[in-house]
């Protein structure tokens, strides 16, 4: 059976002018800053005018651990938003912007799929409205000003061995992970070792996604710790006097981007921190704006629930005062089979026993999300190769976990294929059973917070950390940072730090390699196992097949 590609479907979309999409939410034309005809930024003045309005209900879409078989979390987020609008609810979608690195690497695009997409697909997966470029520029302006300060006499007495602020770019480039800068003689500065992270791992990205307005943005930027003196006292971004200029660079990027689904429903696409490195959620300002404008807001958290949902609850909701009404966990029959030991090449053949064997991965995610006091429903994202017996096995397993699994066909049928899930989400959200609470209190010691996540979410036996890491955490506690949440940087493919261990493993340890203070964003990054803050390209990157065809259209994004 031949199917149209996502990009072919997106290109056939009957888009409405962005002013009409804004009008559906009551956003006056003068408060939309258009980028072409089909996307616009929403003004800060309009956002400020919404204060005092009641909030709609917040729905989180999360997933099982990702597999090469694909789960379709963003596709389900978009489909559910369309489905809620279809059954008469005023729903708004909030998702992250796509990073160029994965788009040209392995992923190829991030705007949903099939008939559950956000458009314009090509622009969203490329430069969009320039937000990521602004974040990259602001981050690297600070880098340049640090080295410039040292070059012109180092009045702040920065210890060049203790400059913690690296550089960033929005591309997968392993060659830049560890580099030496300022080679070439006196006029080029003082040589030192540093490196690049990917832009979506930048603290500036996290700050933009957690700041509530421009004033809060500048304060958080000023709070960034960029280096230390020989006595180990911190140097802040505001000491370098970069926070004002960085805010200027980020002024437009702070405004949420409004676009539309294939069914012409409103979607905010804003911010994009990675979930395996950073906190994996779209911006607080977009989410809060959507909550003031819609009855329902459907948002996603990156990768599996062990990373994305945990950070959504423990970082974003904690810091922004959000209270989710319900959560959807996306799973596929194919992924269950893969967790049950079936190779990717054999996923098309019916294998009910493998489905049953793989279901404990889903079961653990259900229990984890429930532990935050949020009611859960499972969305089985349908593939044509799924058999009735395999779907029935997933439904039966989920019922044993005290939840319901609903088959969803939004990829093929748009909102018509996801009505059952939309009705169930409304039932859960309006049932009043949500009693959300983060996993740990603010005043818990930092290492204990790490242990709490590792033991309760990953089901690890212990956390392995050198004395130097424990001492560093204690130093930060003594400096007043002990109240911060922890942001775990870990492989997305497993509950463990080994990407090859699927299912629901127990009896494992979580080794902590490094900890980083993100004082401006307001969390401690805990780097576990072999996770990289600058990814590399795969052997055959998606970039090899991305091109402009004879009609002048982009091909290869998928």
From TrEMBL:
GO terms of molecular function: formate-tetrahydrofolate ligase activity
UniProt KW keywords: ATP-binding, Ligase, Nucleotide-binding, One-carbon metabolism
Pathway stated in the Swiss-Prot or TrEMBL entry: One-carbon metabolism; tetrahydrofolate interconversion
EC assignment: 6.3.4.3
Cited InterPro entries: Formate_THF_ligase (IPR000559), Formate_THF_ligase_CS (IPR020628), P-loop_NTPase (IPR027417)
Superkingdom of origin: Bacteria
Residues where ATP binds: 67-74
Pfam families recorded: FTHFS (PF01268)
Gene3D superfamilies: Domain 2, N(10)-formyltetrahydrofolate synthetase, Formyltetrahydrofolate synthetase, domain 3, P-loop containing nucleotide triphosphate hydrolases
Catalytic activity, as annotated: (6S)-5,6,7,8-tetrahydrofolate + formate + ATP = (6R)-10-formyltetrahydrofolate + ADP + phosphate
Family that this chain belongs to: Belongs to the formate--tetrahydrofolate ligase family.
Listed NCBIfam families: PRK13505.1 (NF010030)
Designated name of the protein: Formate--tetrahydrofolate ligase
Source organism of this protein record: Albidovulum marisflavi
